[in-house]
Amino acid sequence: MLHHPTARRGLRLLLGLAVTGSLLAACGDDDDASNAGDDTEADGGDATTTTGDDGDSGGGEGLANRVCEELTAAEVSEATGLELDDVEGDAGSCTYQSDGGAFIALVVTDVAGVSGDLVMQGARSGCSGDPSDIDVDGADEAFTCEASSVTIVGAVGNGILAVASGADLSGSGADLVEALTGLMELAISEA
């Protein structure tokens, strides 16, 4: 049994990253899922939404490759209302945490040109139960759900899919969905 707070936080952080990663993996990168350049269904019916930045090279791919550099612990703290002072990660994923027991895992994936409906369907497939639609400024679509008892918020917009999970064990009383929504707004605005 883990009794040390840092060990428990580390375990929860790994769980959060695993859950967040599985949500993004559910989206897959199947070439058949991409309809780049084709905004209508084959039957000539309703147009489908595609994510993207209309060819602007500064879109989702850039943030997905530099998320930890672009979204500092200070910026994420301001966006979420959680006191976060440490950031670790690589090109497309970061973890933000504090000595007080708050942590957030964030994964950003470039989805420019991929059907937004397919992206969100894949992202939502990792949820336990039914996800709830939420409003995120700047997002084409967003949701929140639970997965393995971890709170998840995901949003697609500006050529990226951002998925975050987190916990606030500090007892600050912060609304975690609200905090993660703030992070989605920051990520989408930076893409």
Radius of gyration: 16 Å
Identify the quaternary structure here: single chain
H-E string: HHHEEEHEEEEH
* Tally of structural domains: 1
Distance between the first and last residues' Cα? 41 Å
Strand portion, in percent?
Answer: 25-35%
* Mean residue pLDDT: 75
Would you report the number of β strands?
7
- Largest beta sheet: what is the strand line-up? 1-2-3-7-6-5-4
Q: Which word captures the global form?
A: globular
Q: What is CATH's topology name?
A: Protein Transport Mog1p, Chain A
The secondary-structure class comes to alpha+beta
Q: Number of helix segments?
A: 5
Largest sheet: 7 strands, antiparallel
Level-1 CATH class name: Alpha Beta
Description:
With 191 residues, the chain is α+β, with helices and mostly antiparallel strands. The chain has a single domain, classed as Protein Transport Mog1p, Chain A. It contains five helices and seven strands; from the N terminus they run αααβββαββββα. It has a seven-stranded antiparallel β-sheet with strand order 1-2-3-7-6-5-4. A hairpin with a 2-residue loop joins strand 6 (150-157) and strand 7. It is globular and about 40 Å long. Residues 1-17 and 26-58 have low confidence and may be disordered.
Keywords:
alpha+beta, Protein Transport Mog1p, Chain A, seven-stranded antiparallel beta sheet, 35% helix, 25% strand
At a glance:
With 191 residues, the protein is an alpha+beta fold. The protein has helices at 5-27, 60-70, 73-80, 116-124, 176-190, and strands spanning 86-89, 93-97, 102-110, 128-133, 141-147, 150-157, 160-168.
